[in-house]
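HUMAN: Quick job: go over this next protein and say how the chain folds.
***
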Amino acid sequence: GACTDGVNSYTCTCTAGWQGTNCDSNINDCAANPCVNGACTDGVNSYTCTCTAGWQGTNCDSNIDDCAANPCVNGACTDGVNSYTCTCTAGWQGTNCDQDINECSATNNCAVCQNLVPSYFCVCEISSYEGILCTWAVIGTTTYRVPATTTTTSRIAAIAICAGLDEGGGFLGEPLAANLPTILTKVVARSTFVSGFMWLNVVRQSGSTWVYGATGTVATTNFEFEANVLDNCAVMRVSDFKWIIVSCTSFTADILCQRAITGKVVSP
């Protein structure tokens, strides 16, 4: 600093970055915590920030654009902090959307299935299966499907899941007694179950009269027992197709979906 003489005294005018009577104390430029996302190192009238991963700039307050290098080969990139997320376009998977999805490796009933990049080609056995990857079994004038590894705890939720399936969805299953043996071989035997039960679209109308929810027709009952008169819904036990009366809102079961024939035998 610069010294100014007085009478039996002096005054120091410190250069930038110094303080104290004799300008011998370095001002801590890190005291104000200028490094927003990093560690501060004090200098003389200066400071240096060492940024944590993902940040840059003098004060480490600028997020590094991790999408700048275009890491998502077949998808859209969303920047994070020292990270990024890829939303893959159809047919691709992986952290960087650079892995082709082999659609033919998924559970399907295709008579012929050929994986393509990035798509696939599937042909169903005529009059036997239809829909995307031939997942709907054709039985008479109706098709049935059990969505893979999907369970729910209420009839209302099961109805919504069926309605949200591919190609316009369907409705909760209303299996006719005559269709049960074919459902066993074409649907149940080719499905993966979590619970061992399937929700049906059957509800108690009154007493021992049960009707199908979509058509309102009287259901051909196949109950193991009907002692529980308080509950008004039923599920089908996969092992023997017996109907079990359960609560409409608190029973975990897989789902049997149903819809009319669409005629779609080639996908996608």
